[in-house]
Design a protein that fits this description.
globular
Length: 204
């Protein structure tokens, strides 16, 4: 008797509406809500990219010593310039330079807020934010650690906090947190406690 194994299809995800709380990264927020995404690669390539639903908006080399929050502000500023000028800012291929974002002390946060993401990138991991089909993903050495399903009216900051906490959970349990492809067998993250108590490094 031949048994047919059914393969679970990924959950269909539609672009979400605007977040209820104003985002610290309004241009990235708009890109994601319209079906785009951005990726930060902590490997030797060190590429940082942001795409709209139809085209590349910016690409740059990641500074290994740069913290995640100011890096995201720089990406957000580059996306704003690309949208204003209608031209892709690609410093990797020599088509422009991604400038530093304007100083804004009120927008800065302690680096420990995203300690797990920061450590994952330091060990060569990759994070991807966008609804295709997961809202956020984290991987390292071709191993998927996290795939989060989107939530209504979720800001980029809240999504990053959920991703950060999920990475900590995945590493402590040695189990992929997958809310998209295996929502029944994986462990979805429902709450994000105050950060700072989970600062273990990702496994090399």
């Amino acid at each position: 008797m031949i048994r047919i194994r059914r393969v679970r299809k990924p959950t269909r995800v539609e672009p979400l509406g605007p977040a209820n709380v104003p985002s610290a990264f309004p241009h990235l927020q708009a890109v994601i809500e319209s079906g785009g995404q951005f990726t930060v690669d902590g490997s030797a390539r060190g590429l940082v990219t942001a795409f709209s639903a139809t085209q590349l908006l910016m690409a740059m080399r990641r500074d290994p010593g740069e913290l995640l929050w100011p890096q995201l502000r720089r990406i957000d500023f580059a996306v704003a310039l690309a949208q204003a000028t209608g031209k892709c800012i690609d410093e990797v291929c020599g088509a422009g330079v991604v400038p530093a974002a304007p100083a804004n002390e009120a927008a800065e946060v302690p680096s420990r807020r995203f300690a797990q993401i920061q450590a994952l990138l330091a060990w060569g991991g990759v994070i991807c934010i966008g609804y295709h089909p997961s809202a956020a993903g984290a991987s390292q050495n071709r191993t998927q650690w996290v795939a989060l399903a989107p939530r209504p009216a979720e800001s980029v900051e809240d999504l990053l906090r959920r991703l950060d906490w999920s990475i900590a959970m995945a590493q402590s349990t040695r189990r992929c947190i997958d809310e998209v492809f295996c929502p029944i067998t994986s462990q979805p993250i429902t709450e994000c406690p105050n950060h700072g108590s989970h600062a273990s490094k990702p496994h090399p």
